[in-house]
Amino acid sequence: LYGGENAFLLEQYIAAIRQAGFVDLTVISPWHSPINYAPYTLDTLKAELARRLSLGVSFVQPVVQGLLNVAAIWHLVRTILERVDRRPGRLYSFVARKN
User: Fold this and answer.
1) pLDDT tens-digit series, residues 8-42
2) Integer Cα distance of 49 and 59 in angstroms
3) What pTM did the predictor assign?
4) How does residue 1 score in pLDDT terms, banded at 50, 70 and 90?
5) Within a 10 A sphere around the Cβ of 43, how many other Cβ atoms?
6) Is 14 exposed, middle or buried (0-12, 13-18, 19+ CB in 10 A)?
7) Whole-angstrom Cα distance, residue 11 to residue 71?
8) CA-wise closest residue to 49 among 62, 60, 65
């Protein structure tokens, strides 16, 4: 629920997909796939995170951005964000097959 676009709760989307006869449902959460990063790309998202994490200290930003490009660190950061980012209006994707 965000900005008045009349979105439903995640649980309501999941229930509707299952009620429509879809099975093997996979929910792709906002931080799990670049498809949900809109309007960012993976690179621009990492740059924005580096900017915010550097707290305005210009020489820190490229260091943070370099760290975010390390696969293990990006995985850790993404996992943390997945758990703490509960802002409304996040993009989710769904993959399922019709039974």
Assistant:
1) 888 999 999 999 999 999 999 888 888 888 888 99
2) 15
3) 0.69
4) very low
5) 13
6) middle
7) 31
8) 65
